[in-house]
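Many introductory courses stop at the sequence. We go one step further.
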Amino acid sequence: MSSYSLEQAASLRNKVIAMFFMIIIVPFLLFAYYAHIKSVEGISNANASFSMDYMLQSKKNMDRYLNQLNEQINGIIGNPKFQLLMEQSMTPKRDESSFISGMMLLLDQSKSQVDAFRVRVFPIKPYDHPMYINTLDEQKGFENSSWFKAAQKTVTPTWHLFMPEESTYFRPMLSKIKRFTGLHDQIPRGIVITDLTEDQLKPYLSPSKRLEGQRMFLLTRSGYVLYDSADNEQAGKLIRSKPLVESIAGSTQKAETLTIDGEKQLVTYVRLDTEPWMLVSTTPLEQLTHPIQEMDKVLVLFLIIYLICCIGVVIYITLYFTHPLHRLVRSMRKLESGEFQFVLPPSVRRDEIGWLYRGFNNMTGKIQQLLEQTTQAERTKKELEFQVLSHQINPHFLYNTLESIRWKAEYHNMTDISEMVSSLGNLLRLSLNQGKEITTVSREIEQVKAYVRIEQARLGSQVRFLISIDEEVLHAPFLRLLLQPLVENAIHHGIRSNPDRGKIMLTGRREGLDIVIELNDNGQGIPETVLQELTLPEAKDAPAGSGGGAAVATKRRGVGLRNVNDRLKLYFGDAYTLQIESRAGVGTRIVLRHPIMEPQEERA
């Protein structure tokens, strides 16, 4: 448990609430719960005993009916006229019409002999008797069904629940299927099917009608519903209670409380003797506890009134005493975590709590003023630093360019001076960017191209400079004067000594929420001392002497990269710095990451 949770548990408000519940409410609730449980237990036991007696009687009646039905079916099979008809039906020269009329007459007579909805008789090979099958008005293709094929192969009677979609009857129908042979041989003659509807099963499988919601089921041992007293609602489905299925799989009779369809019910079940079926009775537990509901209502009403009075006292103490203190504690925790932009509601109380509120608000107000002053000073300092870093690049490059123009005009008198001046004008225009710090990637590329044209004129040879920028980032907002210093560094310190073989490649793409610009050259590489200098705070000017000149040269060589790196950090944070990979004699790879900026993020 955290320290904050322990402190909350030890607060005055929680102690008062806990005292009321532990001393007054909890004992009353325990007594009421114990009385209710014992009442429900007594009523459930009494009903379980009565239900078990009723189920045992229903079991005897159902077993007696199934035995009687089996004898009635055997009586039909043993009828000599029936056997003669079935024997003649198997001869090649049979009279189909005579067989149909004789069989229909026997089946009509069996209605008074068999306590069932109907009796159906099928030859062992139905496709040899198409006229007879059409007379029965059976569904087409029944001879290919699994239940019929199984009946053809076994002499053991089976049961099958015919649902409306697989029979011509509109209600679920439980049928006994039995293959029979001749009386004096073992040759299969046919299959007799005895159909039982809910009208035949209802007299034996009806609930006691004592309680509303009581139901009876006829289930297999796996929980498959053969009959449901509630209008056969669940017939052909698994009973919706996994605990009940597990219980009937391991016991022959039992009474217990289980959950069915999300409702607690008193369940009583017994196993039949004649078939491996379970006779199950379910009664909602709510109906059993109905006699004690009136007493529970009075008890609940009294408890509600009692709770309201107790809660009223707790609310009064909480609102007037502990809640103001708790709010003050939360505010102090916010203050400790560095959150100062809030005030407590004004208090007109003249007691100690009121004095605490007013003193706390005065203190937070003074802290906010000091923080605002500090923030403004820091912002002003960073803006000044940014301006200084931004303007360190322009004079140096401008002087070099003007000197190159003068040198070209004085010594070579070449006509490309106008081109250099034009490129310089474009370069200065793009660099100044109307005083705005944010430009676009495409304008930065134009500035780099102008700079490269000037350098080509200065060097007197073409610099192989390749640009590949994805179209989707060309018009994205971009901090100005980031790419030109990188290209300048690549030309002056990378390929200047061998411009004919040197090559610079500038690529740009989008990665997630960033623009990634990558600059590669095959020049001399950046010395390790310069790379280390880029990661350290800028050193002060070295003193005059033998070592000062080398330090100044190193510093000047890395000024462009350092300025770009520092501007990225000042503007976007430490996560956006240059990534430099360089090997002597192989070349340099510089990766610049710049966040995707929305138009409203652009700052002048």
